[in-house]
Design goal:
Distance between the termini: 98 Å
Largest sheet: 16 strands, parallel
Number of strands: 39
CATH superfamily of the largest domain: Spore Coat Polysaccharide Biosynthesis Protein SpsA, Chain A
Strand content: 25-35%
Bound molecules: uridine-diphosphate-N-acetylglucosamine, calcium ion
CATH topology of the largest domain: Spore Coat Polysaccharide Biosynthesis Protein SpsA, Chain A
Length: 470
């Protein structure tokens, strides 16, 4: 459907007082996406040109929007936050389409379907204003209530609502489609609310009703239009979104061991046959292939994981690529554009930073591998550390195919271990190691035969003299 006669105004200037963070709630991320983008992306998909009203924390809000929208949106600043009606008024000079769609910026679960239905209802009923409403009788919600008296309609804000909620079970969703001519004729007549001193867009409904203008309502599911004013409401909305994401993945063939403990962001994908265990978080743009096992309490952010990979418990993977059949963890930390090739095994307490690890290579215990290129079939012994940082610069380590690094090695970068070379356990490697050779870089062991007896008598003597002093 093409909405040629509609333009949108999204209200995003509010102070978010009830968040108590002093930042704008609209850039707070819900399943990995900033709250305001849920609405602007829907409007972009519908090809509706959008004006965003910004004010409080406007740089932060604009930065997010500019990053994700190259066109289709423009900004108007509401210098002083004097209410939703005042926010709309600020955009008056931009109105040029026949219909003005006004939406609160804090309702991220809204769908394109709701906007389409609102438009259709407006057209079908030939209304002056069509607004979305939803059934909600929870007295803790700070919504405006729809109050109908004969053929008169009004919205009474929560602070002023004294009647029985059960008698007025519908709330105002914060989405209004209004004929521009009418809006232009009444917007300047809005008066300040006596309690808050703000201008309310909701007063337009009573004004239209008093003038006998046709007003239509579209009833939509409450969960889709939840407004977010507090962190409790934020949590409730994110809970819904998260459940939908997990539900979708289950339908696609992903097995969840304990889904109520998982967090999955909006743009994450997981292939069929993969199992996600308790407490796993899959964040950002993480993509998981088929038949993987992502075990308990692992955290993956912006990672690409191919098929048949096992990520054992408590592993942290950040911005890295794990190829198929690799085995990672438990307690591994992979980060900064690391590339782990097929059939690699990284074990417990292994940290890999900005490195490439070739096919079938292994580092199974207690290692730090940083700024390193490791070839194929390399073995990294327990406790190996690449010393990549001299306090000023970072240096690279190269370990070529089939090399064998003994346990507890310290590789002082820049350094290269050539193909098939061995390094002895406990070595401090400061020089390059040629191919097919053995490097031993530790002091030679001396065994002093019979020396233990001598030592013991020396210790005994020392003890005796201490006793005498006492
Ligand atoms: C508003 C409605 C209420 C409705 C509810 C739905 C009013 C007076 N009340 O209440 O009837 O049930 O939404 O969620 O409209 N904003 C500005 N400039 C301002 C004030 C607010 O741009 O000066 C923006 C906010 O950033 C927010 C939106 O307008 O995105 C709504 O404001 P908010 O304070 O959240 O209104 P509610 O109290 O939730
Ligand atoms: Ca709100």
């Amino acid at each position: 459907m093409i909405f040629q006669d509609v333009q949108a105004i999204v209200l995003a200037a509010g102070k978010a007082t009830r968040f108590k963070t002093n930042t704008s709630k609209l850039v707070e991320k819900l399943c990995g996406q900033e709250m305001i983008l849920f609405i602007t992306k829907a409007l972009e998909d519908l090809q509706i040109h959008t004006i965003i009203i910004v004010g409080h924390q406007k740089e932060a809000v604009m930065e997010v929007l500019k990053k994700h929208h190259s066109s289709n949106i423009d900004f108007v600043t509401q210098e002083k936050q004097e209410g939703t009606g005042h926010a709309v008024l600020c955009s008056k000079s931009t109105w040029h389409k026949d219909l003005i769609l006004i939406m609160n910026g804090d309702m991220p679960l809204v769908t394109e379907t709701i906007i389409e239905q609102l438009y259709n209802k407006h057209k079908e009923t030939n209304a002056t204003i069509t607004l979305a409403i939803a059934h909600d009788t929870d007295p803790s919600g700070a919504y405006g209530r729809i109050v109908q008296n004969g053929n008169k309609l009004a919205i009474i804000e929560a602070k002023e609502f004294t009647a029985d909620i059960e008698d007025h079970p519908f709330i105002n969703a914060g989405i209004y489609l209004i004929n521009r001519q009418f809006l232009e004729s009444v917007i300047d007549l809005l008066a300040r609310n006596k309690i808050s001193n703000e201008f309310y867009i909701t007063d337009l409904i009573k004004m239209a009703s008093d003038k006998g203008e046709p007003i239509s309502t579209l009833t939509v599911p409450f969960d889709r239009i939840r407004g977010i004013n507090t962190f409790r409401e934020f949590w409730a909305a994110e809970q819904i979104l998260r459940s939908e994401i997990i539900n979708h993945l289950m339908i696609e063939g992903v097995r969840f061991q304990l889904p109520q403990t998982n967090h999955i962001d909006l743009y994450v994908s997981v292939g069929a046959g993969t199992q996600i265990d308790a407490g796993v978080q899959l964040l950002g743009t993480t993509q998981i292939g088929n038949y993987c096992k992502i075990q308990s309490f692992s955290y993956l952010y912006n990672c690409q994981v191919e098929s048949n990979v096992i990520i054992r418990p408590h592993s942290v993977l950040d911005t890295s690529h794990i190829k198929s059949n690799a085995s990672i963890g438990p307690f591994a930390h992979i980060r900064n554009n690391t590339l782990i090739d097929e059939y690699v095994t990284l074990g417990n307490f292994v940290e890999v930073k900005q490195s490439t690890i070739g096919k079938r290579s292994k580092a199974k215990h207690l290692s730090y591998i940083g700024d390193t290129t490791i070839g194929e079939d390399v073995n990294i012994g327990a406790g190996t550390v690449t010393c990549n940082y001299d306090g000023i610069n970072k240096h690279n380590t190269t370990i070529k195919d089939n090399a064998f690094i003994g346990s507890n090695n310290t590789l002082i970068a820049p350094v290269t271990i050539e193909k098939g070379a061995y390094t002895a356990a406990g070595s401090v490697i400061t020089e390059n190691v040629p191919a097919e050779s053995l490097a031993i870089a530790r002091t030679k062991q001396i065994n002093k035969e019979g020396y233990a007896k001598k030592l013991r008598s020396r210790i005994q003597k020392a003890k005796n003299s201490e006793n005498k002093i006492e």
